[in-house]
Amino acid sequence: MKTAVLLKMLFPGGDVCVSGHDSGPVFEEQPSSLIYPEGLSEGKVTLSCQARASPAASYRWLVNGTEVPLGMDLRYTLVAGNLVISSPESIRDTGSYQCLAINRCGTIISRAANLKFGYLNDFPPDSRSPQTAYEGIGTFLACQPPPHYPALSYRWLINEFPNFIKKDDGRWFVSQVTGNLYVAKAEPNDTGNYFCFTTINMDISTKSTFSKANQLTVLPDANPRKSAPSIKVRFPAETYGLAGHTAQLECFAYGNPVPKLRWRKVDGLMPSKAGSSAEGPTLNLPELSFDDEGVYECEAYNSEGSDTYQGRINVQAQPEWLQVMSDSEVEISSELHWSCIAAGKPRPSVRWLRNGQPLSTQDRLEVNGVRLKISNLALEDSGMYQCVAENKHGTIYSTAELRVQVQAPDFRLNPVRKLIPAARGGQVMIECRPRAAPKPSLFWSRGTELLTNNITVTPDGILWIHNISRADEGKYTCFAENYLGKANSTGHLSVRDATKITLAPSNADINQGENVTLQCHASHDPTMDLTFTWSLNGVLLDLEDSAGPYHRVEGKENIGDLLIANAQLSQAGMYTCTAQTVVDSASASAKLVVRGPPGPPGGLLVKNVAETSVELRWSRGYDNHSPIGKYVIMGRSSLSSEWKKMRTDPVNIEGNAESARVMGLMPWMDYEFQVIASNILGSGEPSMPSHTIRTQQAAPTVAPSGLGGGGGDHNELIVTWTAMAREYQNGDGFGYVLAFRKKDTSSWTVVRIPHVESSRYVYYNDSLTPYSPFEVKIKAYNRRGEGPFSQIAVVHSAEDEPTVGPSSINATALTAFEIQVSWEAVQQLSANGILRGYEV
């Protein structure tokens, strides 16, 4: 209410807004929100405001709904509409600012600009407690940032400036939410002093500060324990993002070896915009859209296991106009209807302003949410109107000017046409549209004669003359009158010969790729120019494109033949030739049939999905005037972008078929399919791809390849193999069954390895003899069962150091810089390894 009283004081009645000359204010520049550094007392803040108006606008400013005391407080200066605040202070100047632009046509109010003050205090001077960690175990250092506004960015120093922790080191992670520093597994050389380095970004400056040292000591461990990942940095269970902005989710895990991270969208495909961030600790989704809503999962994994965490992104949106009002000139005593419709999430509310003042339903005014209605318009309703849509994420304004017209009839801007040509036997419309408010009464006369029976006048004053003859030539006058006055305007009707088609195009039947000419000749009034146009199924053709299929056949003015070169299926249809002058036209049509390969089959469905086969059903497409002879089925898996011909049952699919079975598919694989029809004129376009389907799961049918191993540390047997590719897994719950035994023994040791990425297994036993031969074999398993074992391979346990050395060692000087060393070669190494060389 306080704002409304103030506005009445600012916008009293005054000069009259002159129609056709004056215009109300329209913002060209509006103030923007600003964060100003607290304590920078010598500076200035400038809030912009510029409006286009005639006469030029004057300006006022509001802060939190109260007028800024321009002229009374010397800290405030108005510069061409812009508000300049000298020596700004947080206590006095924090607030929401709006600009008012005013002239005699009305007043508009700008969007709100928030002036806030940014600050970053220093870290406390107190020393921080030392921390101890163990080699191979994850830990974190807390930043504990000082009071600040707005949000900070964080980095960490180690020991001295500018030795920052590197972002691309997968062991380390700096949370931009808490500022804490995390390490997936500590190492002895991580011992040192760590400093949290914080930075604040404001509109005109930045500021940084860093903490006291966080002393970290990492205690070594001769045999660090390996551990599965454990997620320690988790994003919220519900994250709210704003459409068009960026959403960031953080996820980091402890583990040894250092866990790798990957993200997926649980209820859909991961947006491509995520890029490489989908395999890092921070998932970035720029330019958020509603398609990005859903549940996202972070998975941390290493050779010891995995850990997952899920959370949901909800996308909301600032208001956005779907429909706005526009400037309107409306005659007095009539009705005005305006609508303003905005999208947003949450749904925006809409309110209305006139000359900056809130509107509500009263008397002739009806405000109904997004709609405004003013009945029985009066002159005082003229002014500047705004609709305002707002939700918790923002506010938008739409502005329009209303002018209520009152005027005696006037034909000066829109007289009746002076010369009105018309064709004999045709019809003509003569408009009468004077400027007048309120709406005038209209009537017609033909000189001093009465209007004949073939002439009618519509309720809005339009004169129609039908079945025109020479007798209808002459002057016609429109009279307009309202309570403010009267006026008239006269035009002359001139009757011309009608246009007629003398040679119409004929139906044609051709094959795809052939040329055809459609003829069209016409007669017309010799005093007028004749032009020909052609349309296909009602759509006008471009005959000026020399590279296109349609060309004019050059000839006399009354000939408009059309040449269609290299006709395609899409060019079949009804062709219409139109011969026209400025007063009339005549048309004739012919049908062109183009025979060609069949169109794409439709309604492709995948049914009865089995492990290695599916059934396809489709409906026949257009045969394009030549019977379909056969069908071919194409398919591709998710592992390839190339379409390939599929094996089918029946092998040859006849033209009257509408189903077939696709054979030879891989189990648990994603496929999509297309169907192509052909006839004697060739193969047609493929059908739309089917929905992607996944074949049923089956037990693995092949064994892993590349079985081998060897090497390692004392008391270890290392077995390696090639991880199974996706196309051979045949199902989920995939892993490996490894069997090994010492050579010449009968009992197998069997282990299950439940990780599809695994390609190495280490068996440790204190009693393991060095370089002992083992027989090993491996097979794959999944949820549906186990596959066959591989061929047996022989792998040796780790070697030990040699227990014998060379003998008869002799050294001979060759030069001042060279000697020759010789020895007796070791004839047989003990059973603990293979002789690989000598070290001198």
From TrEMBL:
GO terms for molecular function: cell-cell adhesion mediator activity. Signal peptide: none annotated. Its main location: membrane. Coiled coil: none annotated. Keywords: Cell adhesion, Cell membrane, Disulfide bond, Glycoprotein, GPI-anchor, Immunoglobulin domain, Lipoprotein, Membrane, Repeat, Signal. It is a lipid-anchor; GPI-anchor. Residues 25-116, 124-211, 229-314, 319-403, 409-494, 499-593 form the Ig-like domain. SUPFAM superfamilies: Fibronectin type III, Immunoglobulin. SMART domains: FN3, IG, IGc2. One of its GO terms (biological process) is brain development. It is found in: Cell membrane. It comes from the Eukaryota. Residues 600-698, 703-800, 805-840 form the Fibronectin type-III domain. InterPro entries: FN3_dom, FN3_sf, Ig-like_dom, Ig-like_dom_sf, Ig-like_fold, Ig_I-set, Ig_sub, Ig_sub2. GO terms for cellular component: axon; plasma membrane; side of membrane. Belongs to the immunoglobulin superfamily. Contactin family. This is Contactin 2.
